[in-house]
Structures are given as structure tokens and as C-alpha cells.
Write a structure and sequence with these properties.
The complex is a heterodimer.
Chain A lengths: L2 H17 L4 E5 L2 H10 L3 E4 L4 H7 L8 H10 L4 E6 L3 H10 L3 E5 L20 E5 L2 H9 L4 E4 L9 H18 L6 H8 L3 H10 L6 E2 L7 H9 L5 E3 L1 H4 L13 H19 L4 H9 L25
Helix pairs in contact in A: 2-12, 7-9, 8-9, 10-12, 12-13
Chain B lengths: L10 E5 L5 H10 L3 E5 L10 E4 L4 H8 L4 H11 L2 E4 L1 H6 E5 L9 E6 L10 E5 L8 E5 L4 E5 L4 E6 L2 E7 L2 E4 L10 H17 L1
Parallel strand pairs in B: 1-2, 1-3, 3-4, 4-12, 5-6
Antiparallel strand pairs in B: 6-9, 7-8, 10-11, 11-12
The chains are: A alpha/beta, B alpha/beta.
Amino acid sequence: MTEQNANTSLRLKTGLAEMLKGGVIMDVMNVEQARIAEEAGAVSVMALERVPAMIRAEGGVARMANPRLIREIMTAVTIPVMAKARIGHFAEAQVLQEIGVDFIDESEVLTPADEEHHIDKHAFKTPFVCGARDLGEALRRIAEGAAMIRTKGEAGTGDVVHAVKHMRTIMREIRALTVLSEDELYAAAKELRAPYELVRMVAKNGKLPVPNFSAGGIATPADAALMMQLGAETVFVGSGIFMKERATPLDVENNPAERAEAVSRARAIVIATTHYNDPKIVAEASEQVTGTMKGLAVAAIEQEQLLQTRGW
Amino acid sequence: MSTASKDTPLHIGVLAIQGDYAAHAKALRETGAEPVLVRKPEELSSIEGLVIPGGESTTFLKFLTRNGFLDALQSFVRNKPTFGTCAGCILLAKEVRNPSQESLAVLDATVERNAYGRQVDSTIQLGESKIPGGPLEMVYIRAPRIVKTGPEVEVLAERDGFPVLVRQQNIVAATFHPELSSDRRVHQLFLDLVREQRKQDL
């Protein structure tokens, strides 16, 4: 790819991320959930076979969703559709690009396929989003071609504590770079284990070169408002909308009361994300919610059971 | 505007429900205007023009159909200059297809959503336009297509025979994203309309 083509490609990829700003991206496991998400005002849906809370509870190898399911969801809604590929599994990513998903999430929520290499995302026309816990990790993913970064948090818990930790870390590390002198940036790049050119860019602009979204444990309207105020440009909500017990989804297809509950949560989080700086509206939105996902405190999870430590 | 004099900067609202409103705010600042983010109907009262950005039109509508926002916006657009890009263009159009949905119905045009395909079909092109200064860069992201326009609508640029930049009196609409390019001529064109309107109001 020539430099000019690479630049055009990146602008188109981050261009779609720009369009998603200030919105909510929702994990969905079937067509009915996707419709609820769209009706509630989601800007995009992430098509999955199992949400992280179920993956965590059921164990086994978590892989890319069946393309048939993804296609059904793409047909059912008009908003952009995302899907996840395993870390390093470029063949899954090729399949997702082939069926035309709008964004690929190279995700730690699935079982990694490569213990060393992430996908070379420059090789794709479809944009990628990747998780990060700190600035160095974010910049390594951007170097590989990611067009959007999301904090990892700890997916499938309904506990926002690590989304907060990762967002604060990234924002703090960005601010720290902006006060360094030019000749200190080389050592900073070494410390961050990130390419010097990207480090320099962040130091100069005071922000990531791609949109910075938040994910991993956001379950309530106030959680969404919190992440937006901490600097997230959009939020991903996974298990928080469609889960009842820790690993049991609400039955939105057959049970009208449970469908209404999912709708109330989805709507409220969408409203709170737009009006994140307006506590009166966040309060009103929160009052509309009936029931909340039963969470799982991140502090109670064994170190080796954490999803966020996947990826390098 | 009672407070505006000839020389105060133009106060331009940017609908900030969701989407690339920050990119528009930056473009407006670069052209000397003062952007004001608009998230509630009452915030329309302090501005002289409005930008409806790109984003998801379905999401915009969820907010607009609550609290009388759509009515407030409709009466604003009938009286003040408005500029819509992509989702904003969809929202302004009289008729929306694929699928059909509610809109402000002030621009005499029929717009088809996602008409060029999905994200893999997004593209950047250089095109001719009626704006002086040479070809214009046009960034299309999951773009809609203007399939029909009424007699009042002036077509300022086309792609494959379909309008991509149009003007109808005080309304400017583009199916691409001028805010994502460094060329500010389309924003200037819109600000000229706002200046014209201010002159008439003073």
C-alpha cells in the first residue's frame, strides 16, 4: 500500500469511529436483541454468540460468532454491525471482512489464538477496535492499524472499577507526555514500549490519534455518565442490558416483562450517555430502569480468570 | 438576534446528541465562528444557525421525538440557516427510504439510507462542485444517496449523476463529510448564509 492509500484507508476507518461518538454500542446475541438495541437508540451493535458474562460462567473456548448469526443481525438493523475476532486470528477477521461487518473487535473476551502477535490490521479494509489497559498498549494496537481504542475494563462483570482504572491510566499517561520536552520523548517511548512517532503525536496533541471509547463492566446509566466524564468518547455495554442473573439472559423473545426490562435499561443508558454532564437527566433516566444485572465484583475474581490480561 | 451586532462572531449550534459533532465544532472554530453544542430544545434559542452532523439518524430520532424537540427543530430550520451532513442530510429530507423514517421534511429531496453499501464501501473522492477554488475532497462514510430533488433545490455537486451537495434557500446539505477534510469551503458557504441572515435580521 502506498503511503497515500494507507492514509486514506485510516481516515475512512477513523471516520466511521467519529460517527459513533457520544453513543452506545451494545452487545447482542440474536436478532431480537439487535432490534431492541436499535429501537433504544444504540449507534451500533456487537454481534456475539455469548456475551462475556456467559463466556466467563460457561468457560470453554470462545470464538468468532457464526457468520450466519452475524448476517441475520446485519439484515435486521440499519445501524453499523461489529463482530469479534480472537486476538491474532486473522483468518476469523478475513471472514468478518468478507461478510461485510462494519467494525472488527480484536477482543480479549474471546480465547486468544496467538500468544505473541496481534492481527496486522493495516492489511484490512474493515476498521478494527482493540482493547487497552494503558497508553503503551493502546499505541501498540494503533501501530498495528487499530482505528479505535477501547478500555478493556473487566468484561462480563457489571463492575465498572477496571474500566475506570484503565481510562484514568490512559488519560494520566497522555497528560504526562504533554509536559515532557522533545528530547525526553525517546525514553518515554521506550518506557511505554510504543513507537516513537506515535508517542510524539500524543505528546503534541494531548490525545490519542484515534477515538478512545470505553468498555468492560459498564452496567448502569450512571456508569456510562462516569466513563464519558472521565474522557470516553462512546461506551460499549455488554452484559449490562440483556443479562438477568450472572449468566442468564433476559428472555426478550418470549417474556414481555423481561423484554420491557431490557428496553428500559438500553434506553436509559443511551440517554445518560448523551446527557452525561447533566445529572438531572441521568437521574430521570435511571428512574426509568426496572432491575439491573447481578454483578460480579472484579476484586473477587482470581487473577488467572481475568480477561483483561489477554493481549500484549 | 437582539444581542448580535455586525461584528460579533457567529454563534452556530451543533446538534450534539451523538455523532461527529466535535469535528464540526472544530471546523466552525477554524472558520471564525463560535460553536455551541445543542442537546436540548431550549438550547436552540441562542444560536443563529445550526449544523446537524453525521452519526446515526435512528439515534438522533430517538431523542428528537421526545420532549417536543422535533417541533422545536422544525420551526428553527424554517427560520434559520441549517447545514446537515450525512445523517443530518437524511434528517432534513422530505422523504427517507431504506427504510422510510420520520424527518424534519424541510429539504425537498428523497434520500436513501446506506445507499452505497456498508463500511467497506466507504470512500474518499475528489469531485467538481459549483464552489469556486477547484475540486473538493468528499469523504463518504456509509453514505446516503439523494435520489430525487424538487425544483427549489440547487445541486452544487454530484457523484455518478446523483446530487451530493445541495442548497435550498437557507438549507445546505451534503451526503459526504466536509468536516472530516481540511478544506473549509463548504462550511464557509454555510456561514455566508448565516451572515446574510444576520444582516436581514439587524
